[in-house]
Design goal:
Largest sheet: 6 strands, mixed
Oligomer: single chain
Number of strands: 12
Distance between the termini: 52 Å
Number of domains: 2
CATH architecture of the largest domain: 3-Layer(aba) Sandwich
Low-confidence stretches: 113-121
CATH superfamily of the largest domain: Cytidine Deaminase, domain 2
Radius of gyration: 20 Å
Helix content: 25-40%
CATH topology of the largest domain: Cytidine Deaminase, domain 2
CATH class of the largest domain: Alpha Beta
Mean pLDDT: 87
Shape: flat
Number of helices: 8
C-alpha cells in the first residue's frame, strides 16, 4: 500500500482560486492479531487496532508487542504476516504467530491501556505500572555534544520521504553518539513511528538501546517515554515539548529528555549531564 494518496485541491490566494494536484499521507487501520497456545490447541485473538500509515507493519506490531511486555525476544515469534482471507481488510490485518511456549499475561495489556489513557490514575501509579516492565532506572554512559542535537532536525527531515510530499507525517529516528542516523521510521501516528523503530531494533537484536538516542518530530507524551524506557534508550529528544508526566517518568527512568530541539536551541528536563558542553561558562 502507498504512503501517500493523490487528491485535487482548491488553493485560495488572496481573492483568486486555482485547482491543483496534491498528496496526502495515507491513514489506514491495522488490526494486530496473535496466534498462540500449544501446537495441539492454537488460538487467535485480536489485541489492538491502530490507525497507521502502511509500511513496516511487521515492525510496528513487534514494537507494540515488545513495548507492552507481551514478547521479550525475537525467537518468540514464529511468523509475522498479513492476513489475506478477508478481501475487505486485505493488507490491514497482521497476524503474529508466537512460539507455543510463550505464555501471555493478558491482564498486562489491560493494565497498560488504562495507564496510558489518562483515565484518572495518578502519575505515580502509571510509573509503577511501567517500571514492572523494565529492569529499573537506566544506567548508560551515552552522551552527546549540543551540536549533535542541533543537527538532528534537518538531518532527519532530509530522510523523510513521506513528509516531503505531504507535510503531515511524524518521524522517529535512532541516532548514535556521533549523530549518525541508524534507523528512521515514518507514520501518521507518533506512537506508531516509535513502535516501528523499536520493532526494527528488536528484530535485529539491538535491544537494549543503551548506546543510542531517539529523536522525535513532535511532542513527548508519557507513552513515548514508556516505550523508550522499555527499549533501554537513555536519551529522548524532540522538536516539541514534553508533558509533565513524561518528565516525571523520565526522571524515574534516569532518561535524558530534550525538548524544543530546533533553531540551534533546546531545553533539558532531566539528566542534563548526558549533554556535554564544550564551554562550561553559563549565563
Amino acid at each position: 500500500m502507498p504512503l501517500v494518496a493523490p487528491v485535487t485541491i482548491h488553493k485560495i490566494s488572496d481573492e483568486s482560486l486555482t485547482e491543483a494536484p496534491d498528496l496526502l499521507a495515507v491513514e489506514e487501520p491495522l488490526e494486530i492479531r496473535l496466534g498462540f497456545g500449544p501446537v495441539t490447541d492454537r488460538q487467535q485473538r485480536a489485541v489492538a487496532v491502530t490507525m497507521r500509515t502502511p509500511g513496516h507493519d511487521e515492525e510496528l506490531a513487534m514494537g507494540f508487542l515488545f513495548s507492552e511486555g507481551i514478547i521479550q525476544q525475537p525467537d518468540e515469534i514464529i511468523s509475522c504476516r498479513h492476513c489475506v482471507q478477508d478481501s475487505q481488510k486485505e493488507g490491514n490485518v497482521l497476524r503474529v504467530e508466537l512460539h507455543p511456549d510463550v505464555v501471555i499475561d493478558w491482564s498486562r495489556l489491560e493494565r497498560n491501556t488504562f495507564a496510558s489513557s489518562s483515565c484518572g490514575l495518578c502519575g505515580k501509579t502509571t510509573i509503577d505500572a511501567i517500571m514492572a516492565l523494565t529492569s529499573g532506572p537506566l544506567s548508560s554512559n551515552f552522551s552527546v555534544e549540543p551540536a549533535i542535537l542541533h543537527a538532528l532536525p534537518d538531518r532527519v527531515r532530509q530522510t523523510q520521504r513521506a513528509f516531503a510530499y505531504t507535510g503531515g507525517i511524524h518521524a522517529a529516528a535512532l541516532f548514535d553518539a556521533d549523530g549518525k542516523l541508524l534507523i528512521v521510521r515514518e507514520d501518521i501516528g507518533r506512537h506508531n513511528a516509535l513502535d516501528k523503530l523499536i520493532g526494527a531494533a528488536f528484530w535485529q537484536n539491538w535491544l537494549p538501546l543503551s548506546h543510542s538516542g531517539i529523536f522525535l518530530s513532535g511532542r513527548i507524551g508519557v507513552e513515548l517515554v514508556q516505550k523508550s524506557w522499555r527499549a533501554g534508550v537513555p536519551m529522548l529528544a524532540a522538536v516539541g515539548a514534553p508533558s509533565s508526566l513524561a518528565v516525571q517518568m523520565a526522571k524515574e527512568a534516569r532518561m535524558t529528555v530534550a525538548g524544543f530541539v530546533r533553531d540551534k536551541r533546546f531545553n533539558l528536563y532531566s539528566e542534563p549531564e548526558r549533554v556535554v558542553l564544550v564551554m562550561t561558562n553559563r549565563v
